[in-house]
Amino acid sequence: MESSLGIGIFTAPDISEILQLPTYKVRRWIKAYWDNCFAIQQNETYSWGAGKEKAVDFNTFIEIYIFVKLRELGLSPKKILTAHKLISEEFQIKFPFAFTKILAGEKDIFYYFDKDVVIKADITKQLGFKNLIELYYKKIDFSFDNLAERYWPLGKGHSIVVDPKHQFGAPTIDGTNILTNTIYGFYKGGESIDFIASIYNINVQQVKDAIYYYQRKAA
């Protein structure tokens, strides 16, 4: 698998920082699921590099995020693997969790067959209900062809965005190509928020968002 402009480059430490997860877990999941289970199922590759230096693209990053959210809801890896395989085969796509919205109840996973039809992601393919949990998609923008294209780590009410078309997917200030870590670096160096906003021609709230993004761990 080769990286290219527009698909993003995300190492395990990058994903760990964005999603606030232990790096060892991210590495383990990439190896256990995307490089083994999903790759074997679809005869595909999901990462490039070797050992601890592996990286993935934006679509795989989104799938890892959805995997985490489904696990937080108490769904087993087995159910998630089954759903991933079934939806992938249904739509003939490599990244089912980044392609169509996944819904979850207390015990099961569902997906949108079309905008009005919800189907259970197992061998029964039972019809489901639209009032299931899909809140985690509030941080994702989808394109017209239903593919995830941007992720908002602090939510869409803030200006920090992960967009594979900007800075290879590193967090930036929305509407600019300015890296959030550049803004935070100036702040840590002692520059005032007003000064940083003026030299980068952004507003004070955008600077505060960048600072908060890196101070979340301590909050």
What do the pLDDT scores average to? Answer: 87
Q: Main beta sheet, described?
A: 3 strands, antiparallel
Order of helices and strands: EHHEEHHHEEEEEEEHHH
Can you tell me the overall shape? globular
What structural class results from the helix and strand content? alpha+beta
Our measurement of the CA-to-CA distance between the termini, rounded to an integer number of angstroms, reads 38 Å
Our count of domains comes out at 2
State Rg: 18 Å
Low-confidence stretches: 1-5
Bin the helical content.
40-55%
Classify the beta-strand content into a percent band.
Answer: 5-15%
What's the number of extended β-strand segments? 10
Strand numbers in spatial order across the main sheet: 1-3-2
The DSSP helix count reads 8
